[in-house]
Amino acid sequence: MFDKDFIFGVATASYQIEGSVDADGRCESIWDTFCKKEGAIIDGSDGTKTCESYIKYKDDVKLIKNLGVKAYRFSIAWGRVINSNNKPNKKGINYYVKLCKELIKNNIKPVVTIYHWDMPQWLDDIGGFLNDDIVKYFEYYTDVITNALKGLVKDFITINEPQCIMFMGHDACYFAPGTKYNDKEMLQAIHNLLKCHGAAVKVIRKNIPDSTVGFAPCSRPAIPSNRNNEILEEKCYQEYFDIKRSSEYSNSVSIYSDPIFLGDYPKTYYEQFKDVLPNITKEDLDLINQPLDYIYQNFYSGNYYSLDENGNLTKDKFDFGYPEGNIDWLQVVPETLYYGPKYLYRRYKKPIIISENGFCNNDVVSLDGKVHDPQRIDYIRRYLIELEKISKEIDVKGYFVWSLFDNFEWNSGLRKRFGLVFVDYKTGKRIKKDSFYEFKKIIKES
């Protein structure tokens, strides 16, 4: 199916699976605080327990090994390794050292995400990404992590899904910290986030010279409803990278990826936001534009588009016969993994790794004691067919399923299940779903 060096992996995030929020000196994160807000989490749950991976990491590694993947992508909890006095927390650091050693012992490559949304609360209290000093804090945090994991980890992702950090956290406010930004504040925070990324890349390269480094945004590609219409495809490509101040611009692709890969914001950015632009210096842009090894991207769904009678691009309704996932934003659009990588490769000319792709399903334990999830199996199979197609045209290096476990799904709490492994949150029992065995089969076939 794919080249022999293609990497299959699974992914998780610290706050969603670790639990043990009060253990070994971990300081409070913005998600600990956000979960205490009445109505913030649909089912009133939080990250206190979830999958208990902090104490069950060896069991996690056994599952990963049994699955047969080559790599495990996980994130570091900032507040677990850096305390509220901005000093290293040795016990928290030691957890990630032990996890990496266990992975390596089992021939599994650790892929570390530096930041997956769980900023320490004390940092948010002094402004978070609005505070220009956040770059220095992020740089120091990255330095501590990379020095601790030197000799264990070579593959790093700086920041996961900046779109969710900014739009969901500071516009829609469905995610932590839930602080609303105006346009001027939003652009300043985005700029500082990108400088954090650049500073982190420099630290990683310095401390681990043979490392590979990337950045993992998310996106919904514009998919041409007619795959044979070149005009339609070109307009879909332009739509994918367009920035519109009148819409959810903090969700866009190019506002983050253009400065990182091309060295500057898009022309439309300067045109549309000329009255609220942050101070953007050449030094800033040089810092942000650090050389990267891969284009990581989290893909789940896309939007179909057609041309109207005047040749204008119009978004189609989702009436193509595919099912929806058990979460409102996840429509099943397999061509996402064809056109998304195609567009990104065309614009940024770097090898592609799918850093997240998965399906939210209404999973239950059946009377036979098993978890049957044919919808997830169908989703993964369909999407991989499209990824295989585009891999014949461009350089695609890997694919990570989201997620290894059912986990704390942010503002949806524990109700939404994305895992290949079912978690009974009351007992802690874990059950391999049918999709676990199917993905294992896919890996063997490839």
Verbal overview:
There is one protein chain. This protein is of the alpha/beta class and 446 residues long. It has a single domain (7-445), classed as Glycosidases (TIM Barrel, Alpha-Beta Barrel), CATH 3.20.20.80. Helices cover 39% and strands 15% of the residues. The chain has helices at residues 14-17, 30-34, 53-67, 78-81, 90-105, 121-125, 134-148, 162-170, 183-207, 230-241, 254-262, 267-272, 282-288, 336-348, 374-391, 434-445, and strands spanning 7-11, 71-75, 109-115, 155-160, 212-216, 218-219, 222-224, 295-299, 303-307, 313-315, 352-357, 396-402, 421-423, 430-432. It has a nine-stranded parallel beta sheet. Helix 15 (374-391) packs parallel to helix 16 (434-445).
List keywords for this structure.
16 helices, three-stranded mixed β-sheet, 39% helix, TIM Barrel, 15% strand, alpha/beta, 446 residues, 14 strands, nine-stranded parallel β-sheet
The ordered string of helix (H) and strand (E) elements is EHHHEHHEHHEHHEEEHHHHEEEHEHEEEH
CATH topology: TIM Barrel
| Overall geometric form | globular
The overall average pLDDT, rounded, is 97
Bin the strand percentage.
5-15%
| Strand numbers in spatial order across the main sheet | 5-4-3-2-1-12-11-8-6
- Total beta strand runs: 14
| Rounded Rg | 21 Å
Q: Which CATH class applies here?
A: Alpha Beta
Give the helix proportion (percent range): 25-40%
Number of helices: 16
- The CATH level-2 architecture is identified as Alpha-Beta Barrel
The CATH H-level superfamily is Glycosidases
How is the main sheet built? 9 strands, parallel
Total number of domains? 1
Q: Return residue spans where pLDDT drops below 50 for at least 5 consecutive residues.
A: none
> CA-to-CA gap between the ends?
5 Å
